[in-house]
Amino acid sequence: MKSSSPFLAAGFAKRSVDELKRFARIAWMQEGLRIPTRPYTLVDFSDPDTISTCKTMSDADLGGFSSATLETEFASPSNMPHALFYGSISTDLPKNRPQVQRTGYAGWRNRDQPPTLFGRSLWDLDSYSQLALRIRSDGRKYFVNIQTESIVPTDLHQHRLHAQKPGEWETVLIDLNAFVRTNHGTVVEPQTEMMRQKIRTVGMSLTDRVPGPFELAIQKVWATNGLEREENVDQYDREHRF
Questions:
Q1: Is the Cβ–Cβ distance between 87 and 214 less than 8 Å?
Q2: Which residues contact 240 (CB under 8 A, 6 or more apart)?
Q3: What is the rounded distance in angstroms from the CA atom of residue 31 to the CA atom of residue 233?
Q4: Contact (Cβ atoms closer than 8 angstroms) between residue 179 and residue 191
Q5: Which helix (H) or strand (E) element contains residue 101?
Q6: Digit-coded pLDDT (tens) for 65-109
Q7: What are phi and psi of 162, to 5 degrees?
Q8: What phi and psi, each to the nearest 5 degrees, are found at residue 56?
Q9: Cis omega before residue 190 (within 30°)?
Q10: Which residues have a Cβ under 8 Å from the Cβ of 139 and sit 6 or more positions away?
Q11: pTM to 2 decimal places
Q12: 158-206 per-position pLDDT tens digit
C-alpha cells in the first residue's frame, strides 16, 4: 500500500527545497538588508498552467446571474500570451433566495498556494513598495484585491485599477501602502497596515454593478521597487551576458 502522506509527495518535497533555498539566499546574500531590484512575480499568465492555479467568483455563487470566466489566450502576432477575464454583470436578484439583497459582481484570484515543510506558502512583499500589473482594460471600474493571513479571513486590501489607456496594453503601478482594508466591500475602521510578509492571494474584481459584458486582459502581476530599477537590471544582464 502506498502512503498518501503529503510529506512524501514529490511536489511537496520540491516546494520545500525551493523554500529552503530562498531562506538560505536571504541569509547568505543578506537580501533583507538591501532593496531588491529584480521583480518578484506573483502571477504570470504567459505560462498557460497558471490558469489552473486561479479561480473565479461571482454572485452566481449565491444564486445571482452574473458570469465570470478566466481562460488562456495564446500568443498571436499582436499579443503576448495572457489571460482573459470576461463575462457579464447582472443585478437581478434570485427570487428563491430572499436573503440575497445585492448582486452585480465578478472576480478572480489565485488559489491558496500548496504547503511546504515550513508551513503555508505565502508571499513576502515586505521589501517591495509597489504592485505592478500588465493589463488591457475595457475601461470599467475594476479593483485589485490582496488577501493576507489575517485574523479576519474575509478582510481584503483593495485599490482601484486606474487604467489610462482602455483597449491598449499598459503597465499599472499601485503603491502597496495605498491599499485600503475592506470587508465585503465596506471600508473597515480603524485601518491597519497590510501584513506584507504574509500575502495569501492577489486578484481583481468588478463591482460597478453596471449590467452588461466585461473583458479584462491580464498578462502578469508582480511586486517591484520601480520599473526603472528593473530596466537597469535588465540592461546590466544584457551587457554582462556570457
A1: yes
A2: none
A3: 16
A4: no
A5: none
A6: 999 999 999 999 988 999 999 999 999 999 999 999 999 999 999
A7: -90, 90
A8: -110, 155
A9: yes
A10: 163, 166, 167
A11: 0.82
A12: 999 999 999 999 999 999 999 999 998 899 999 988 999 999 999 999 9
